[in-house]
Every structure is written in structure tokens, then in C-alpha cells.
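Lab notebook, bench 4. The sequencing result for the construct came back, and we need a structural model before the next group meeting so we can plan mutations. Quick request posted to the team channel:

Model the 3D structure of this chain.
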Amino acid sequence: MKYIKIAAFVFMAVFATAATTHAQAMKSMKGMKGMSGMSMSSKVKTTTIKGEVVDLACYLSKGLHGKSHEQCARACIRGGLPVGILTKSGEVYLAIGANHKPANSMLLPYAAKQVDVTGNVERRGGVDIVAVSSVKPVSAK
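Done. Here's the predicted structure in C-alpha cell form:
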């Protein structure tokens, strides 16, 4: 009987801790959208970004991009490394797909090429992010 009381006490303590933790987590997530929406804040806006599709591993570690880096960029993006958009002014956007899916397959055909990417843009944790909804090549003039 003593063990049943101890087990019941332990169960209640664990249950109370879990319920409190869940309530705190739900409170901190107030205002967040579900997994179908990108944002967890109200600072999201849909925009079009013009820039080069880069593999972020080579660009951020070694500054590599452009036509001379195209084959490596393709291999890195195909391999699942993060992909981004490098604007003419030097801004870099981490590209993710809509609904938190990778953007790699969508952007792979445009590795090292100029594109117009449309999607939800926001800054989170010091990182500029674009949730890509569409991409089209920029025609050379």
C-alpha cells in the first residue's frame, strides 16, 4: 500500500509538471501561426527578391559564387546544403520552401543564376529568411 501511495504521488508530480510546462509553452506561442504558415511573428511580408541562387555553405565559408562556381553550387544544393539568394547589394536570404519544406529542388535549376524569388520575408534570430512561393529566371539584357 505504501508503494501505491508513493507511485501515485510521483505520477501526480510528473503530471503537474508536464501540465505546467505545456501551459507555459502554449503561452509563449501565442500569436504563432500553424505549420502551414511561415511566421511566428507579425513581421512577415510577401515580396520579390532579385538575386543569385547560391549554396550557403560555400558562399558563407569561402565567398564562392557566380558562374565559375556553378557546378559546385549544383552539387551542394543537390546534396541538401542550405540554399540562399544573394542580392546585388550583398544581402543574403536563407531560402526555405513554403510550409517549411526545403527550397533546394525548386532552386537547383537556377544555381549560380539570377532569379526573381517571391515569398514571405522576415528576419528571425539575425537571419533574413525567404519562404519561396515562386521563382523565375531573370532574363539577361
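The chain has four helices and five strands.
Will bring this to the meeting.
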